[in-house]
């Protein structure tokens, strides 16, 4: 399917037989059989960063740019609700940075990983709950992928630093770090239930298989894959790479502490890199999304119907449960027999059996039928002598029947030997440390020693690299300090000078505009004195004025131009003359403004 925007994710809803394509701002629904666009639902709430599909709940869950999760109907695309449900819960519950990955779990739960370095486990039905998992670091690396192991109740988080971390759901604490990938972020992490292995891929171009409980690398494969999916029903793994190929693989147990990866099928489906995979185990349909804005649909990708795969899975589980029940019963019977019989009897039997297995590790040849039937051969020869020459046919028939029985017995013994040898070989391959306790302890101690040395060497290297980095940082800081300080000073002076120039210019422009505005409203003398209305009702030629230079009120007396004034007179009863302005039209005498009129001034004097 060619779409008009890069796909964020795509899913197959087998109940409605629709392909759901999620972009950053829309849901697009296509018919599965003909890949015809049926509906586009635009979403303008927030840009979608990642998405997941819960077929059991019939909802699409999105991680949005505002760091919240939102639920939409998988049938209509209608908005249902957000997680957290209310704004008041945001402070505690929401991620602190962009959500990068989502994983749907059973029982209405979902995992979300974020750039803030944490993983959150949400339960959105009924009483909304959230559990937060984060490593004990001040600045934890961003989480790029997540997985969940139900039997151990462990959350796995692949980080931007190339390390996968395990968290216990009950306590919320980090329990282990899986280190071994080179530089680059983790791309995928999945749990393979058969044979109980953690599978990871990284930007270093490798896939690693890990022992979940010990964190030991069981095998490494040079294969670059952007995304990995695991189908527990069919026990198959799907990988998509940056050349547009997807591969179907199976993980196999290759003996103690070892695992192999068998490639079943490889197909090129896109011209550009495959960025995402989703698989519907009910319809056996694989959906791929690519950087070329296309979505691929691969129906019946494994060609194993769900009902058949489920029957095989149930049968395998039942056999495992029966074997476990038999083992428990054996242990119980051993325990009861040891308590009722002489002390150490069961232990002695176990030691005897282990010794027998060690001694017979190189398998002997099958039993020789001739040696086994030596007595019967002699008896046959004696019986054949009872016949005379006329009874040759009877003697031949007896010999033929004996040889046929001998042949059948040889075939049966060979088959029994083959089965017994297979069981011994399987026991020796899988349980050799238990059979040969001394060698097993030695191998375990060597493995622990090697892992301890590797860990110490890795930590020493990391510490040395960190110290070297710190030294380089300090040297760079000291070397760059004078130049940086000079740059800071130059930038500050330029900003200060610009600020001074702009503020002065703005002030001058504003003042000029204001003076022009006032000048248009009132007459102005010598660009300094603004003349207003008469100073009082009794005045005829004295006006109110403003000294624009000193910013104060003044009184201005207007005389004809022929009048000559003596402004040097000074008397306590006279108003002070501040300035005289001669113009062709008038003479303006600027005086100090007094708070009373001449009449009131004269009356106040004795």
Fold and architecture overview:
The chain is an alpha+beta fold. The strands form 8 sheets. It has a 6-stranded antiparallel β-sheet, with no helix packed on it. Helix 3 (345-359) packs across helix 6 (392-435) and helix 6 (392-435) packs across helix 7.
Brief summary of the model shown:
By secondary structure, the protein is α+β, with helices and mostly antiparallel strands. Helix content is 34%, strand content 32%. The radius of gyration is 47 Å and the shape is elongated.
Cα separation of the termini: 110 Å
Q: Using DSSP, what is the number of strands?
A: 33
Mean pLDDT across the residues is 82
Q: Could you say which overall geometry the principal axes of the C-alpha atoms support?
A: elongated
Q: Indicate the proportion of strand residues.
A: 25-35%
Strand order of the largest sheet: 28-29-30-31-33-32
What percent of residues adopt helix (DSSP H or I)?
25-40%
């Amino acid at each position: 399917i060619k779409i008009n925007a890069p796909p964020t994710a795509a899913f197959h809803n087998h109940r409605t037989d629709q392909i759901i394509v999620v972009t950053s701002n829309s849901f697009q629904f296509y018919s599965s059989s003909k890949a015809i666009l049926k509906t586009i639902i635009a979403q303008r709430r927030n840009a979608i960063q990642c998405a997941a599909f819960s077929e059991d709940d019939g909802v699409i869950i999105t991680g949005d740019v505002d760091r919240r999760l939102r639920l939409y109907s998988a049938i209509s695309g209608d908005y249902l609700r957000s997680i957290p449900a209310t704004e008041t819960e945001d402070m505690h519950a929401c991620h602190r940075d962009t959500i990068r990955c989502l994983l749907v779990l059973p029982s209405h739960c979902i995992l979300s990983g974020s750039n803030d370095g944490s993983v959150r486990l949400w339960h959105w039905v009924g009483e909304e709950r959230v559990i937060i998992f984060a490593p004990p670091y001040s600045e934890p690396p961003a989480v790029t992928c997540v997985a969940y192991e139900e039997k151990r109740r462990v959350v796995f988080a692949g980080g931007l630093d190339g390390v996968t971390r395990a968290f216990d759901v009950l306590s919320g604490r980090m329990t282990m770090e899986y280190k071994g990938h080179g530089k680059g972020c983790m791309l995928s992490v999945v749990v393979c239930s058969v044979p109980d292995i953690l599978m990871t891929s990284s930007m270093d171009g490798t896939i690693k298989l890990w022992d979940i409980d010990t964190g030991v690398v069981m095998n490494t494969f040079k294969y670059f894959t952007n995304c990995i999916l695991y189908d527990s029903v069919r026990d198959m793994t799907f990988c998509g790479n940056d050349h547009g190929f997807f591969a179907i693989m199976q993980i196999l147990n290759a003996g103690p502490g070892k695992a192999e990866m068998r490639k079943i099928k490889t197909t090129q489906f896109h011209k550009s890199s495959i960025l995402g995979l989703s698989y519907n185990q009910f319809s056996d349909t694989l959906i791929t999304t690519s950087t070329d804005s296309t979505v691929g649909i691969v129906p019946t990708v494994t060609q194993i119907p769900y009902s058949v795969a489920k029957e095989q899975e149930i049968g395998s589980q039942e056999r495992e449960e029966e074997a476990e029940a038999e083992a428990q019963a054996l242990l119980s019977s051993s325990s009861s027999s040891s308590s009722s019989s002489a002390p150490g009897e069961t232990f002695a039997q176990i030691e005897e059996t282990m010794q027998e297995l060690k001694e017979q590790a190189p398998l002997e040849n099958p039993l020789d039928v001739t040696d086994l039937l030596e007595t019967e051969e002699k008896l046959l020869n004696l019986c054949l002598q009872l016949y005379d020459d006329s009874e040759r046919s009877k003697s031949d028939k007896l010999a033929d029947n004996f040889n046929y029985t001998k042949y059948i017995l040889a075939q049966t013994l060979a088959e029994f030997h083959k089965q017994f040898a297979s069981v011994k070989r399987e026991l020796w391959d899988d349980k050799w440390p238990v059979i040969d306790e001394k060698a097993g302890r030695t191998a375990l101690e060597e493995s622990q020693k090697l892992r301890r040395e590797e860990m110490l060497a890795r930590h020493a290297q990391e510490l040395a690299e960190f110290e070297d980095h710190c030294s380089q940082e300090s040297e760079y800081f000291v070397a760059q300090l004078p130049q940086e300080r000079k740059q800071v000073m130059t930038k500050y002076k330029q900003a200060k000078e610009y600020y001074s120039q702009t503020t002065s210019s703005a002030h001058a422009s504003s003042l000029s505009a204001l003076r022009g505005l006032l000048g248009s409203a009132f007459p102005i003398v010598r660009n300094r004195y603004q003349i207003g209305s008469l100073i009082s009702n009794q005045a005829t030629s004295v006006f109110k004025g403003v000294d624009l230079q000193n910013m104060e009120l003044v009184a201005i007396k207007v005389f004809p131009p022929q009048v000559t004034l003596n402004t040097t007179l000074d008397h306590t009863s006279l108003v002070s003359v501040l300035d005289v302005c001669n113009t062709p039209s008038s003479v303006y005498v600027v005086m100090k403004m007094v708070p009373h009129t001449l009449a009131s001034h004269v009356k106040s004097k004795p």
